[in-house]
């Protein structure tokens, strides 16, 4: 994910000071953007999750507080009064007494085809063509230009500005998605496939871009839907959901949540439709650093991060996403894949309206299904999934196998398996 963002003393994590406290205090509290814990201003790394912290904000009070100057010596009556010293320069006042945040880097500018990038392992990768361009960066088809990787084989190379969200994604792969860890999990859970991308290399280019190299991911599910499908058949949708539940269980067991479940981050391989991959970890969030679940604290993170149509209510409110957040987003995706729209799909520019409707339908799943399916009957598996997920507490561990069984059973009645080739027609 996630994407995709450090901790300190328990007292700092317990409560974030309000505006009045911030003005009265000589310290400005900081919070780790990854796990939400409070950290000391001087810390460079979060002691809870180990992530790198952004530079600490300068405090206005320290900049503007001027020690009272000693009174000038009294002048003799016959001497003209010396002019007072000029006042020290003052910075423009800012709300909350904080320096402005560093401006976010702009979007990455596409590199020319045939450009060669060298990763930190010394291997070189040649860009072939630009495949996707969006808020999560640029996705290229690439080939190995040196090293032991087959040079005619295609790879997927993701590129973004150096300090963009791709840095968060790189941290996820280094911490939680090593190839050996993925293989052990597959054997332990007896699954033939697990759609966690294999990150083959990463590095910097021209000191401006950061890139990640993967085995060929194929095409995004969104691009397949854009070919004219717009909706999925029930069989294909259930197959994909079971695969994604496997991925989410793996991610969650490794202390992370994805944070941005959407068809743009789901890949299908046209040459092998048994392969379903969950990518796009720009918004991945370490919800359980060191085995301790972060506290639910609204406003501790930037609100509305991720794809507006599908993100969870936790993400809308600026709370760190938890396991239920990923499952809620997956439910919205499944609903749209089957119906073609969500009640808020046409109002994504009105954030408050989107949040209000998600709040409303979270407590009334049957009404949500009636609105989306109109006169058609809604799949029982979908209704039960949404009801179970919407009832989860913030820190509650989901029953992943129970959720998978909701979709596996109807697939069995269709004489199919979740791990068969996905029932979808697509072109390369």
- Low-pLDDT parts are 1-28, 58-82, 88-102
The portion of residues forming beta strands comes to: 5-15%
Helix count, DSSP H or I runs of 4 or more residues? 13
* CATH superfamily grouping of the domain at 219-413: Transferase(Phosphotransferase) domain 1
The shape is globular
Helix content: 25-40%
**Helix and strand composition category:** alpha+beta
Q: Tell me the CATH architecture of the domain at 219-413.
A: Orthogonal Bundle
**Total beta strand runs:** 11
How much is the average pLDDT? Answer: 83
Write the CATH fold name of the domain at 219-413.
Transferase(Phosphotransferase), domain 1
What is the terminal separation in angstroms?
A: 25 Å
Please trace the helix and strand order, writing H or E for each element: HHEEHEEEEHHEEEHHEEHHHHHH
Sheet of most strands: 6 strands, antiparallel
According to CATH, what is the class of the domain at 219-413? Mainly Alpha
Quaternary structure of the protein:
single chain
The gyration radius over C-alpha positions equals 26 Å
Query: Strand sequence of the main sheet, in spatial order?
Result: 3-4-5-6-8-7
Pfam families: Pkinase
Biased composition (Pro residues): 81-92
InterPro entries: CK1_Ser-Thr_kinase, Kinase-like_dom_sf, Prot_kinase_dom, Tyr_kinase_AS
Domain Protein kinase: 125-407
């Amino acid at each position: 994910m996630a994407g995709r963002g450090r901790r300190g003393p328990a007292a700092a994590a317990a409560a974030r000071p309000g505006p009045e406290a911030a003005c009265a205090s000589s310290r400005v509290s900081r919070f780790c953007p990854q796990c939400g814990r409070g950290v000391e201003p001087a810390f460079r790394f979060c002691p809870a999750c180990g992530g790198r912290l952004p530079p600490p904000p300068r405090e206005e009070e320290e900049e503007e507080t001027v020690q009272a100057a000693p009174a000038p010596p009294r002048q003799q009556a016959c001497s003209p009064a010396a002019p007072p010293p000029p006042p020290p320069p003052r910075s423009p006042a800012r709300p909350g007494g904080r320096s402005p945040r560093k401006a976010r880097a702009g979007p990455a500018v596409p590199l020319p085809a045939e450009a060669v990038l060298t990763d930190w392992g010394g291997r070189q990768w040649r860009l072939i063509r630009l495949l996707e361009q969006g808020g999560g960066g640029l996705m290229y088809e690439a080939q190995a230009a040196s090293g032991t990787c087959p040079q005619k084989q295609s790879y997927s190379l993701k590129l973004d500005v150096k300090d963009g969200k791709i840095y968060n994604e790189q941290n996820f792969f280094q911490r939680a998605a090593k190839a050996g860890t993925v293989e052990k999990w597959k054997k332990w859970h007896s699954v033939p496939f697990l759609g966690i991308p294999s990150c083959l290399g990463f590095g910097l280019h021209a000191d401006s871009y950061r890139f990640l190299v993967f085995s060929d991911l194929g095409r995004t599910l969104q691009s397949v839907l854009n070919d004219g499908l717009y909706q999925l058949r029930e069989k294909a949708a259930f197959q994909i959901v079971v695969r994604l539940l496997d991925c989410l269980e793996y991610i969650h067991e490794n202390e992370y949540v994805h944070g941005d479940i959407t068809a743009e981050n789901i890949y299908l391989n046209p040459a092998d439709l048994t392969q379903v991959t969950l990518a796009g970890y720009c918004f991945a969030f370490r919800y359980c650093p060191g085995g301790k679940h972060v506290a639910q604290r609204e406003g501790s993170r930037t609100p509305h991060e991720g794809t507006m149509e599908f993100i969870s209510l936790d993400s809308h409110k600026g709370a760190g996403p938890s396991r239920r957040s990923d499952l809620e987003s997956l439910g919205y995706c499944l609903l749209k894949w089957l119906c073609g729209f969500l009640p808020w799909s046409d109002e994504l520019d009105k954030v408050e309206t989107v949040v209000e409707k998600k709040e409303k339908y979270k407590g009334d799943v049957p009404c949500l299904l009636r609105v989306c399916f109109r006169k058609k009957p809604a799949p029982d598996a979908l209704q039960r999934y949404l009801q179970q997920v919407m009832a989860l507490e913030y820190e509650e561990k989901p029953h992943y196998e129970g959720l998978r069984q909701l979709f596996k059973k109807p697939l069995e009645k269709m004489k199919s398996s979740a791990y068969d080739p996905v029932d979808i027609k697509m072109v390369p």
